[in-house]
Specification:
Layout (H helix, E strand, L loop, with lengths): L3 E2 L16 E5 H4 L10 H18 L3 H8 L12 H10 L6 H13 L7 E3 L7 E4 L2 E8 L2 E10 L1 H7 L11 E5 L2 E2 H7 L1 H4 L3 H12 L2 E3 L10 E7 L6 E7 L1 E5 H5 L8 H8 L5 H13 L11 E2 L5 E8 L2 E8 L7 H13 L7 E5 L8 H6 L13 E4 L3 H7 L2 H6 L1 H11 L28 E5 L6 H11 L4 E4 L9 E5 H7 L12 E10 L18 E2 L4 H6 L2 H12 L7 E4 L6 E5 L4 E7 L1 E8 L2 E10 L4 E6 L8 E9 L5 E12 L2
Parallel strand pairs: 15-16, 16-18, 18-19, 19-22, 24-30
Antiparallel strand pairs: 1-2, 2-12, 3-21, 4-9, 4-12, 5-6, 7-8, 7-10, 10-11, 13-14, 14-15, 17-21, 20-21, 23-25, 25-28, 26-27, 26-29, 29-30
InterPro entries: ClpP/crotonase-like_dom_sf, Tail-specific_protease
Pfam family, one: Peptidase_S41
Protein name: Tail specific protease domain-containing protein
């Protein structure tokens, strides 16, 4: 069977790979190349001992996993005590080949079912990605909540590599996989899918059944898989015997210097607090899908590739839509401002808003922390995090760099060290001031659409929108992916703590869940790990969604969201006002029109400046606000909060004011 370059498969894919030598082949042909470089005994010992340090002394979810899953006596079949399991590897290290060592250490990490906890293989093994030319999705039909159906068919690969095989169609139901009823097949790979809880487990398992990256997982054991399906159109039952295909960058294999480090392959996926497997999955889908925008309506791009928006007419109403495909934006400093300006301008006159974070693997925690304020009448709260109370954490954080830059975390671990508590007290990543710097920008009902692949910072965002009471959570699955931690690379610890952490040999890398996320607001002291954010309204995909761009699901959400009552309290500037208000020198007032509001409070640079009882009921009332006397050129922030008689915030807005000379 001849190896085929990606460029020969489809013209539509040529531009995406012009800069790389991406090739495709059959797993049966390439399997001999998916290998590990041989390690010395000393290197094996280093890997095992560093893994044990990570899992015993840094892994913050270690005890939570014991409680949630219990412990299996077999390290290969369920959740195990990770530190004890690695100790067995260390005890047996002289009997293990390099491949066996990598396989056992990797499996111990995977068995924790924590997608923030990773043992990443080195090159050349890490260069390969095994896949089937189809994807699976969960659908629900009546009492059957866990159907498995074909979600995507990559026709290019069927045409170029599998021309004699029947090409399945989107919507066809999977009945058997590898000779097993599909539910049994899913259960058999729950561990290797590594998804947390019932919903994340199912979703990640069906993902793993069609896409297996060798950066963190061994290749499929068999070269082919027999799949029995039922046609969605005719009801016909048929089978296809699919070979596993492999995609890889030939340049990575030819670059001998790169063999010393797998970071070239993993940095982009694992550099942030993001779930790397989902990022790889999303990139694969994007690379191989000719129609990049498959929603049932077109979306408008922004200057940030991960943010798109639309306005969808629904009868006499208009529904706003924002898609956030990742919390790792190309320009982190601008992402929140782009959303802020969308809400203030293009989406300002919509009747409700949906924020779609399905399949978003996460990213920057600070990004997630700053979004709830845009919808909150009062002050938005953020989640917090805590450390495992261990001697190593204490020693590592009590270094000069951390005392200077992270004094609050040093204090938390030092205080914990004086106790026998499992965890430190909690600290925040984003200050209350930073989490409320922009103020409210949208005043209509808001919904967040998430699924079990919404993970990491996306878990945090979804939970914070719920905990702040500013959105209804619509669940394609009943909960989000349940990844609640700040994740860091072994390289971070090795660079800043060489007394305890040694460089990993041969380009192996590891990540660890280091600070455990704890919810606030309406769900205080609840962890996200394993539990996720429970949907307020379940909107599972139906068969029709697979073929109509999720329009059936979208219509259900739209009907529910647009039926919600809209607050009658609010404000309006009497003249055109942008993000910056120009104040003429000597003109120290500002007029606004207020509705259904008892009183207003005016803040200048976050300090209370004026309180007025306005009694604006019935007909909207124009209110004159005093402004401070400032010299020309001065810029300050004004915050205006409308409240009820009990001083509960009903709305707020913040603007910059620039004083101009007469």
């Amino acid at each position: 069977m001849k190896l085929i370059k990606i460029a020969t498969i489809a013209l539509a894919m040529m531009s995406a790979f012009a800069q790389a030598e991406i090739k495709n082949d059959y797993l049966s042909n390439v399997r001999p190349q998916i290998t590990f470089n041989e390690l010395s005994r000393a290197d094996k010992q280093t890997l095992a001992e560093q893994a044990q340090l990570f899992l015993r002394d840094l892994y913050v979810n270690r005890y939570a996993k014991d409680i949630y899953y219990g412990n299996s006596p077999d390290w290969n079949k369920g959740h195990v005590n990770p530190a004890d399991a690695v100790q067995k590897v260390i005890n047996n290290i002289d009997k293990l080949s390099t491949a066996q060592l990598h396989a056992q250490l990797s499996q111990i990490f995977i068995n924790q079912r924590d997608l923030h906890l990773n043992y990443n293989f080195p090159l050349p093994h890490a260069a390969f990605l095994s896949f089937l030319p189809i994807n699976f999705a969960r659908t629900a039909d009546g009492a059957e909540l866990n159907e498995v159906r074909i979600d995507r068919v990559y026709a290019n690969y069927f045409d170029a590599l599998l021309p004699s095989l029947r090409k399945p169609e989107v919507g066809d139901q999977v009945l058997e996989y590898a000779g097993l009823p599909v539910k049994q097949a899913v259960n058999n790979v729950l561990i290797n899918g590594a998804g947390a809880n019932l919903y994340g487990g199912f979703s990640r398992a069906i993902q793993y059944m069609t896409l297996v990256p060798q950066s963190g997982k061994l290749p499929p054991a068999n070269d082919r898989v027999l799949i029995k399906l039922r046609s969605a159109k005719t009801g016909e039952v048929y089978s296809i015997d699919l070979p596993w295909l492999v995609q890889y960058d030939d340049a990575a294999l030819e670059n001998k210097a790169a063999t010393a480090s797998a970071k070239a392959l993993t940095d982009k996926a694992f550099a942030q607090s993001v779930e790397g497997y989902q990022e790889q999955y999303n990139q694969f889908v994007s690379r191989n899908t000719a129609e990049s925008d498959i929603q049932g309506f077109s979306k408008n791009p922004t200057a940030e590739p991960t943010i798109k928006w639309a306005i969808v007419p629904k009868g006499e109403k208009r529904l706003g839509y924002i898609s956030l495909s990742s919390f790792v934006p190309a320009n982190p400093d601008q992402a929140v401002n782009i959303i802020y300006n969308l809400l203030r301008n293009q989406l300002a006159k919509t009747d409700a808003l949906i924020i779609d974070v399905r399949n978003n693997g996460g990213g920057y925690i600070s990004y997630a922390d700053q979004l709830p304020q845009l919808f909150k009448p009062g002050k938005a709260s953020t989640g917090s995090a805590r450390l495992l109370n261990t001697k190593l954490n204490n020693q590592f954080l009590n270094q000069d760099d951390f005392r200077q830059y992270w004094p609050e975390w040093v204090k938390l671990i030092n205080d914990a060290a004086k106790t026998k508590n499992t965890y430190s007290k909690t600290g925040v990543f984003t200050s209350a001031e930073d989490a409320n710097a922009l103020g409210q920008a949208y005043y209509k009902p808001v919904g967040v659409l998430a699924n079990a692949r919404s993970y990491s910072a996306t878990d945090l965002f979804t939970c914070q929108m719920q905990d702040n009471g500013v959105a209804t959570i619509y669940g394609e699955d009943p909960s989000t992916g349940a990844g609640g931690a700040n994740v860091l690379e072994h390289g971070f610890f090795a660079e800043l703590g060489p007394d305890w952490f040694k460089p990993l040999p041969d380009g192996v890398s590891m990540r660890v869940s280091w600070r455990q996320s704890v919810r606030g607001g309406y769900n205080p002291n609840t962890i996200i790990e394993d539990y996720g954010c429970q949907a307020d309204v379940n909107v599972p995909r139906a068969l029709s969604d697979l073929v109509n761009g999720d329009q059936t699901q979208f219509d259900k959400i739209a009907a529910d969201l647009l039926a919600k009552p809209v607050t009658k309290s609010g404000y309006q500037f009497t003249g055109p006002v942008g993000n910056i208000i120009e104040q003429k020198e000597g003109n120290n007032t500002l007029d606004i029109q207020v509705a259904e509001t008892e009183l207003i409070k005016v803040y200048i640079d976050n300090q209370l400046f004026e309180t007025q009882a306005v009694y604006a009921y019935g007909t909207p009332k124009t209110v004159r606000i005093s402004l401070p006397k400032k010299a020309p050129g001065h810029i300050y922030q004004i915050g205006i909060v409308g409240a009820d008689a009990g001083q509960v915030a009903l709305w707020n807005t913040k603007r910059l004011v620039q004083v101009k000379a007469q």
